[in-house]
Specification:
It contains 3 helices and 8 strands. With 151 residues, it is an alpha/beta fold. It has 2 domains: 59 residues, 2,3-Dihydroxybiphenyl 1,2-Dioxygenase, domain 1 (Roll); 64 residues, 2,3-Dihydroxybiphenyl 1,2-Dioxygenase, domain 1, CATH 3.10.180. The strands form 2 sheets. The protein has a 4-stranded mixed sheet with strand order 1-4-3-2, covered by helices on one side. It has a 4-stranded mixed sheet with strand order 5-8-7-6, with no helix packed on it. The longest helix is centred in the N-terminal third of the chain and has 11 residues.
Length: 151
Amino acid sequence: MPALRKNEPQRARENTEKREYKRMKTTGIHHVAIICSDYERSKKFYTEILGFSILKETFRAQRNSYKLDLQVGDNHQIELFSFPNPPQRLSHPEACGLRHLAFEVDNIEQTVNDLKSQGIEVEDIRIDEITGKKFTFFQDPDNLPLEIYER
């Protein structure tokens, strides 16, 4: 048996070594949920600028909150939520949690040009040193980092 780490109880170590892990049986990612500070501004950004289609829009009176279901590609969704006075997202320095949301595109240069033509600031295109693929970042109206990654 490997040596115990400092202050590590023997029983906890033995239980960990005997545990069998089972994989969760997923078929993919269903949706990503985003809370926005200005619902109308974010709705316009995600539908008119990024071009995602609306599946369903719901106003939840008891929460004074909208929930907007958006179609992303063929199989994915974004749930856009509004809540009164949500706290600001900590982006700089980066905090624990979701780092960014990445969208796959066929032509990154065309996508960058389309975004820039609509007044969206986009970082310079870079090459992923691991995959050799092109990618870049831009931000949504609440400064959530969004990535475009060429297929």
